[in-house]
Write a structure and sequence with these properties.
CATH class: Mainly Beta
Distance between the termini: 9 Å
CATH superfamily: Electron Transport, Fmn-binding Protein, Chain A
Order of helices and strands: EHEEEEHEEHHE
Helix content: 25-40%
Number of domains: 1
Shape: globular
Number of helices: 4
Radius of gyration: 16 Å
């Protein structure tokens, strides 16, 4: 049986984990892909090359983002968040890239800024979360 996670537990998982699964769908096709992300308390930020998931999200910006924390076969925590996809540009995209870089490569601020300016080309996007729920399985 799964227990419901508190809002604080949901937030802790979203803040601490680094990889989630992005689910999107359009024209009768569902697509799920793992994504590294940064989280700011209300939105998830990601970077991607242009491709299938970006095309699908442009067609239908309503998405789902799932993060889990498996401990053992019957001991796990999972968060599901629903939200809206939005592509970022300019300063917003640069701030999101800085957040992603800082999350995965802690460094001095100037090194992070240099990395953000020299980041791989692609799409920087935000998923503004409208609903977050969590469950946990305990043995």
């Amino acid at each position: 049986m799964a227990d419901v996670l508190s809002e604080a537990e949901v937030e802790k998982i979203l803040e601490e984990e680094r990889v989630g699964r992005l689910a999107c769908s359009a024209d009768g096709e569902a697509y799920v892909v793992p994504m590294v992300y940064a989280y700011d308390g209300g939105s998830v930020y990601c970077h991607s090359l242009e491709g299938k998931k970006v095309r699908i999200m442009r067609a239908n910006p309503r998405v789902c983002f799932q993060v889990d924390r498996p401990h053992a076969t019957r001991d796990w925590e999972s968060v599901i968040a629903r939200g809206t996809y939005e592509e970022l540009s300019g300063e917003e995209a640069e701030r999101a890239m800085l957040a992603l870089i800082a999350r995965f490569r802690p460094a001095t601020p100037s090194a992070a800024e240099d990395s953000a300016q020299n980041a791989a080309p692609g799409i920087v996007f935000r998923i503004t979360l409208a609903e977050k729920t969590g469950r946990a399985g305990k043995p």
